[in-house]
Known about the structure:
The protein is mostly helical and 116 residues long. It is rod-shaped and about 80 Å long. The longest helix is centred in the first third of the chain and has 45 residues, at 2-46. It starts with a helix and ends with a helix. It has a two-stranded antiparallel ribbon. It has helices at residues 2-46, 79-85, 112-115, and strands spanning 61-65, 90-94.
Amino acid sequence: xxxxxxxxxxxTLAIRAxxxxxxxxxxxxxxxxxxxxxxxxxxxxDRPEVSTRFRPPPGMCRIWIEGVPGPRQPAPTDCAxxxxxxxxxxxxxxxDDRPQQRAQPAKKGGRKSDRD
Length: 116
């Protein structure tokens, strides 16, 4: 009986150690994942609203400075330069980062003259 009790204590200690390790890892990992998700949401929310008129052409970038009107913004440049020279109150707008337009669903039945 003593031998069995000692064996169960060892098993209980091993299980306790695994549970403790799992809890510690969860406490350390979960906040980092949550922070990464918040960071992505913040970046998307903080992305400046830039009129298509002022967007850079595909393959180029433009520094967009907060509070500066569109016509007074710096000219489009290569993306490496824009990223390197972005000021603290600015963002980099990528030429390929155009707003997605939803495809218009096709109208069923076509024109009235086509149905007759």
